[in-house]
Amino acid sequence: xxxxxxxxxxxxxxxxxxxxxxxxxxxxxxxxxxxxxxxxxxxxxxxxxxxxxxxxxxxxxxxxxxxxxxxxxxxxxxxxxxxxxxxxxxxxxxxxxxxxxxxxxxxxxxxxxxxxxxxxxxxxxxxxxxxxxxxxxx
Length: 138
Fold this sequence. Notes:
Helices cover about 30% and strands about 20% of the residues. The chain has helices spanning about 20-25, 40-50, 70-80, 95-110; strands at about 25-35, 55-60, 85-90, 120-125, 130-135. The chain is α/β, with parallel strands linked by helices. Helix 3 (about 70-80) links the parallel strand 2 and strand 3 (about 85-90). The two termini are about 25 Å apart.
């Protein structure tokens, strides 16, 4: 689950990830920082917004190994077959991911595609996969 989320019960018939998928669907921009693993919850959020025209999806892949590594993330990105343009920005301890996030925020502000950003929620899931969601200001 995303860091900073208060503990709460899950309503009958819902899954623990339903709240996060709903949050992603209300966003104007969903930014996902992926490393090696793509857990079910993160995958659910990404796939929920892939076909939504009103929601921009930006993926920053924290990867810099030679060639194309064979990871959950690389396999999922390959399956998307040009549905996502992602940034292979370098490992998390390098400056590349920070530069990629700054470029995304600047582009969103300059292009005016999204209303002013109210807040940014970011965190990592239990396996250390970073996630971020910029909700709409509705």
